[in-house]
């Protein structure tokens, strides 16, 4: 794939993402979408926190 065709594909993908974001930010479902994203990010944050604690415990047990 040449550089110009990569640029065209990148532009099209970027434009599509921009349109989708604009649509959701201007729609009535914006608050619902934001709430879902907040919930999912909180779940992900909790999972990472648990993994971090497990990793720290495993390292602590190996060093003891």
UniProtKB/TrEMBL annotation:
- Membrane spanning residue stretches: 7-25
Keywords in alphabetical order, please: Membrane, Transmembrane, Transmembrane helix
Organism, by scientific name, is Chitinophaga agrisoli
Supply the name of the protein: YtxH-like protein
Q: What is the lineage of its organism?
A: Bacteria, Pseudomonadati, Bacteroidota, Chitinophagia, Chitinophagales
In terms of InterPro entries, this protein maps to:
YtxH
Short name of one Pfam family for this protein? YtxH
């Amino acid at each position: 794939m040449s550089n110009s065709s990569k640029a065209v594909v990148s532009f099209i993908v970027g434009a599509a993402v921009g349109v989708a974001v604009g649509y959701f930010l201007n729609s009535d479902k914006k608050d619902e979408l934001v709430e879902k994203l907040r919930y999912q990010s909180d779940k992900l944050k909790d999972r990472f926190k648990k993994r971090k604690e497990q990793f720290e415990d495993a390292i602590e047990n190996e060093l003891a």
